[in-house]
């Protein structure tokens, strides 16, 4: 086996618990979906995404503006770790953390496969053209969206 290829494709050869911090962080595709506000149905526990983005999300780049301090500034922000992988079902179905925790492969558009973050935008996964600042949202229930086939629609 090509050792260099094994190193480059670490997600195929390592469990989440075996990954270095840099490998773990590189799993994030930068779509921004996890930074959207969500609503939970009290009756059945289903999670519904909204267009309202966390105040720390820079929507055009889909990156956190204060990643290192996000938990302090936004106490509801969840830090993903292998210790809470069994709770990844709230993450988008396209999320690498969720997919790998469920034993699934990365999608072909993932930046670790394509070598470019543009592939997330080209695949319609990024929220940059969908999200809006939560400060501009009056009623989250009017901003509920559904993701299907990589794209999103208002419900």
Structure explained in plain terms:
- 23% of the residues lie in helices and 17% in strands.
- The longest helix has 6 residues, at 3-8.
- The N and C termini lie far apart (48 Å).
- It is of the alpha+beta class.
- The strands form two sheets. Strands 1, 2, 5, 6 and 7 form a five-stranded mixed β-sheet that branches.
- It has helices spanning 3-8, 10-13, 21-26, 70-73, 96-101, 111-114, 118-122; strands at residues 36-40, 47-53, 57-58, 63-64, 132-133, 144-148, 151-154.
Major sheet size, sense and barrel closure: 5 strands, mixed
DSSP strand count: 7
**Ranges with pLDDT <50 over ≥5 residues?**
1-6
Number of helices: 7
Query: Can you tell me the overall shape?
Result: globular
| Helix and strand composition category | alpha+beta
The amount of helix comes to: 10-25%
Report the β-strand fraction as a percent range: 15-25%
Determine the mean pLDDT.
Answer: 89
Strand-and-helix sequence, N→C?
HHHEEEEHHHHEEE
From the N-terminal CA to the C-terminal CA, the straight-line distance is 48 Å
- Rg from alpha-carbon coordinates: 16 Å
In short:
The chain has 155 residues and is of the alpha+beta class. It has helices at residues 3-8, 10-13, 21-26, 70-73, 96-101, 111-114, 118-122, and strands at 36-40, 47-53, 57-58, 63-64, 132-133, 144-148, 151-154.
